[in-house]
Amino acid sequence: MSLFENSILLGIIVKQSVKGTIYIYLGVLLGFITTAILFPNIYKPAQVGLLKIIVTYSTLIAQFGTLGINGVTIILFPIFRTEDKKHHGFLPFALVIGLIGFLISAILLLIFKPLLVEMSLEKSTLLVEYINYLIVLVFFQLFFSILDIYYSALMNSVHGTFLREIFQRILIILMIGLYYFNLLSFHQFVLTYIAAISVPTIYILYTLIREGHFTLRLDLAFLNKTLLKSIGAVALFSVLNGFSVIMIQNVDLIMVNKMLGLDAAGIYSIVFFFGIVVSLPARSIYKITNVAAAEAWKTDDRKTLRDIYEKSCLTLFVIGCYLFLGVWLNIDNILQILRPEYLAGKWVIFFIGLGCLMDMASGANSSLMGTSRYYKIQSYLLLILVVILVLLNLILIPLWGLTGAAVSSAAALGILNLLRYLFLYFKFDLQPYSLRFLYVIAFGAVAYQLARWIPVKFHFILDILIRSTVFSILFMLPVYFFRISVDLNKAADNVLRTLKIIK
């Protein structure tokens, strides 16, 4: 890859990362309204647990139902890419695989439905009433995933982020409003909730058609034996990889539901949001770094790979530190927003946030490892981590309840990222860390402590605003003036120019 192409690729990453991060932050605001204010104050914990658990189950099943085609898109799409937007019929090929996967998933869901019902009868009876709707959610989640990854491979990772983080959440808020004013029963709300999650699939399909990227013409001649063999190998390990990632993200909620009941799952899912907010900005960055890393591996462009790794680690660590410390600085105020039964989740927020911070500090390591020729190693590591996570949950949930599940999740993320770091370091001599990370920690510690020392306790909303403002200024100014992250400084300069503060 030439220097010019390298600059263009990194420029696309920065531009879409900034735009995607803006969408993520708007999504965080909307998610805060739904998860922190509306859900816990309008619905019972069991009802919240139901909404979260059906999405969790459908996400797991949909991940299996893709049959690994998303991993194939990330790793092998550069081989299919053409200028005529048809890409040798890759999209219809992916959709056929998805349809086959959905049919297999639906059949398996029907076969194992009695077992799922039996498991839920004791502590999650409300779930039994809505198990049949899982098939609908699986269908739309599965095909949204395929279309979103495909659109990201076309160097547009932000459209799917907008649909999921903003558009979908606005629809859900509207449905909550209808329920609150008694215009919908809870049963009707669940149906509209499922519809709100499904609509983005239709919209992204419409966008692909409108922009001329949609075709149903298969190019079977392009799919030679060698390529099909590569597709099969990548797909197999992508299923294991994707399923393991989803399990790592959701097994704690599933096990809390199983071991402590739907009420506890509802509480856990609400407080979990405040911890996971630390890593939300990374979602848009990972989507585009997957594509960029695959392109760089195609030509073994180590400079681009090193740039992606170093910049993603530093930028995400700055953002992660800011969010983690900001959340914990306001933890007592945050808990006042929630009903008393949610106070048990205080340390869930801390440990989930800490795990997410470790993940942010590791940058795009999963993109680099997962798109390399050693992608199988990542699948093995993830499978091992799932086993460790399940074992930790079995030990710690009975000991510490909800906090035990959060500690297990944080430990799993820490172990996973340490193993990825060691692999990339010893195999490719990629090492992204520098003294700048220590500067960020120092800036964060000082800003946190000074903001924490503000003596007067105001009304909790006003207190959040004052402490957060002080912390933001004390943290962001040294990060900006010491030019810790070039990408963040560029983004800040663009904002300042728009506001006409600088030229």
Structure, explained:
- With 503 residues, this protein is an all-alpha fold.
- The protein has 2 domains: 3-433, no CATH class; 434-503, no CATH class.
- 81% of the residues lie in helices and 0% in strands.
- Helix 1 (3-42) runs antiparallel to helix 11 (282-298), helix 3 (69-80) runs antiparallel to helix 4 and helix 10 (262-276) crosses helix 14.
- It is globular, with a radius of gyration of 23 Å.
- Mean pLDDT is 86; it is low at 1-10.
Quick description:
This protein is mostly helical and 503 residues long.
Overall body shape: globular
* Number of helical regions: 20
Helix content bin: over 70%
Q: By helix and strand content, what is the structural category?
A: mainly alpha
Q: Can you write the helix and strand succession as a string? A: HHHHHHHHHHHHHHHHHHHH
The major sheet is characterized as: none
Unreliable stretches: 1-10
- What is the typical, i.e. mean, pLDDT? 86
Number of strands: 0
Strand content: under 5%
Distance between the termini: 34 Å
How large, in whole angstroms, is the Cα Rg? 23 Å
Summed up, the domain count is 2
